[in-house]
TrEMBL record:
Keywords: Hydrolase, Pyridine nucleotide biosynthesis, Pyridoxal phosphate. Homodimer. It catalyses: L-kynurenine + H2O = anthranilate + L-alanine + H(+); 3-hydroxy-L-kynurenine + H2O = 3-hydroxyanthranilate + L-alanine + H(+). GO terms for cellular component: cytoplasm. Pathway: Cofactor biosynthesis; NAD(+) biosynthesis; quinolinate from L-kynurenine: step 2/3; Amino-acid degradation; L-kynurenine degradation; L-alanine and anthranilate from L-kynurenine: step 1/1. Belongs to the kynureninase family. One of its GO terms (biological process) is L-kynurenine catabolic process. This is Kynureninase. It comes from the Bacteria. GO terms for molecular function: kynureninase activity; pyridoxal phosphate binding.
Amino acid sequence: MTSASTSTPRAHDGAASPAAVGLPPALPSLDAAALDAADPLARFRDRFLGAGGPDGDGVIAYLDGNSLGRPLADLGERLAEFTAGPWGNRLIRAWDERWMDEPVRLGDRLAEVVLGAGPGQTVVADSTSVMIYKLVRAALDAQGRSDARRDEIVIDRGNFPTDRFLVEGIAAERGATIRWIEPDPTTGVTPADVEAALSPRTAVVLLSHVAYRSGFIADAAAITDAVHRAGALVVWDLCHSAGSVPLELDAWGVDLAVGCTYKYLNGGPGSPAFGYVRAGLQDRLLQPIWGWMGAADPFGMTESYTPASGIRRFITGTPPILAMQPLAAMVEVIAEAGMDAIRAKSVLLTEFAAALAGRLLAPYGVELASPSDPAVRGSHITLNHPRFREVTAALWERGVIPDFRPPHGLRIGLSPLSTSFAELQAGIEAIRDVLAELA
Ligand SMILES: Cc1ncc(COP(=O)(O)O)c(C=O)c1O
Ligand SMILES: Nc1c(O)cccc1C(=O)C[C@H](N)C(=O)O
């Protein structure tokens, strides 16, 4: 592990404890049929369009639910009901009756089922990028107001491009400095990496909980604690954890968090983000995009902006109510399945994927670019091979859909509620076949 520091790295530094992430017993076998037969969540596959049987479009293995989750099978009916009912029937009255409160009501439910957070701290709004911008800038500005020396934003070079670009933009806009962490690319950011980057100048730290390439799970509790000891605030990007890894935002003392809802929360392409702001911090922060829906009295048509108190102040414009419907339905499916059971299957899926890759793909020179320890691995694995760009293109043509992340990573995303072990095995065998044809 490398960082901006000179400190000596420790193996698996930052590992979440197995108990904290609900680690099941080791993979019982490499028999996909037996694993599917023993899977307590197998019945949920039918809830997703195309997952329970042939999907009509030649998809043999969908291994990209960490970019875009499948739709719920009954979503068409739900949207038709919404169109005919609250929208078509209640019309504008539905804003007063229900929709004004929807960003916070759905946020609260998401917080309860997925985020490990109490009510009044989560909103559903905006895109992930816009929400990250709002929360990081609000945190930076608040820190600067209380101590002018705090002008640094800490982020790692392995973070998703939008996070890095947003920080570059905010730094340019506010005259802040960026302190870059250089994490080990096959794992991720450790508490030691963060501690080495912190100083009395640190205002805010933006990190991903599950790394988008390696799938490494950062130790959110320990890092949050280290950031607090340095007098700074932390923003966690939960895009790759929400709905796949149990979260305890309140217990970890997290300040702020953002996540997308179209991956393991199956909200659909471009579904709105969620933003979490710890209750005790809300009225200290002023987010930078002032809109009427986050104002204290939206229908007062006031002359100037007074922010709402509490979590509502992090809203900007009209909440995307229609686009929240798939998410609202999926949160209830997750509640029924339970996050611990989801995590247990996720661990088995990634263990199975890594074991099969070791057996079938390693002979072709494929390497695991994710942690081998499932306790610190989210719900995807990345494999490296110099020819994976062309392999991915060939796989998509034959209905096997992982994704490719340059320079040579093939990412296998495993959605515990909609992916079967047989599907995963078919996908890995197809990778082997394509590699054999190219060899
Ligand atoms: C870690 C992370 N942050 C942010 C995003 C995306 O942000 P947005 O929904 O604004 O495109 C993604 C994926 O697209 C991501 O993986
Ligand atoms: N957000 C995406 C999109 O709008 C189109 C295609 C893919 C995505 C993704 O989610 C990318 C993803 N966050 C990643 O980890 O690479």
